[in-house]
Design a protein that fits this description.
The protein is mainly alpha-helical and 151 residues long. It has 7 helices and 4 strands, in the order E-E-H-H-H-E-E-H-H-H-H. The termini are far apart.
Length: 151
């Protein structure tokens, strides 16, 4: 099977050859062209950054309005002295804005950040397993009764 060739610097080359010439990882180039729909020129010209600094297509971090400034969650966390994970958890799990996540603390409002009264996933798994065992027991018991009746 012939590999697909792309126009690059006046030639038609495969992605692996283009990646070698540009010093970029072939998998990175392949994903940018095929998954993210970039042209070969755009994919090669975009800087290669570690995943923790930018996502593969280079979108900037989401900014929130905080005290009149547009800041990322990490910047706000550094300013107020709260862990980034704590702010993100409060915003995601409890559906509060960044301002509320910063101003509310578990010491002031201990019930504010408690989990909802619904059972946890592990408790639900245990309950489901117990129900299956009960059902299995009842089925065996009924099968035994019907076997005695037929005999």
């Amino acid at each position: 099977m012939k590999r697909k060739q792309y126009p690059f610097e006046g030639e038609r080359l495969t992605l692996s050859v283009i990646a070698k010439r540009t010093g970029m990882n072939a998998g990175t180039l392949y994903s940018r062209v095929n998954y993210y729909g970039m042209s070969v020129q755009d994919a090669v010209s975009r800087p290669i950054t570690p995943r923790h600094l930018s996502n593969p297509i280079g979108k900037p971090a989401r900014r929130h309005l905080f005290k009149g400034e547009m800041l990322t969650v990490a910047e706000v966390a550094a300013r107020v002295g709260v862990k980034v994970q704590t702010l993100r958890y409060r915003m995601a799990q409890h559906g509060v804005s960044l301002d509320e996540a910063v101003t509310q603390s578990s010491a002031i409002h201990p019930t504010r950040w408690l989990a909802p009264s619904q059972p946890s996933s592990s408790q639900m798994l245990i309950a489901e397993r117990q129900q299956r065992l009960r059902n299995r027991y009842l089925i065996r018991r009924m099968a035994g009764v019907f076997a005695k009746v037929e005999a």
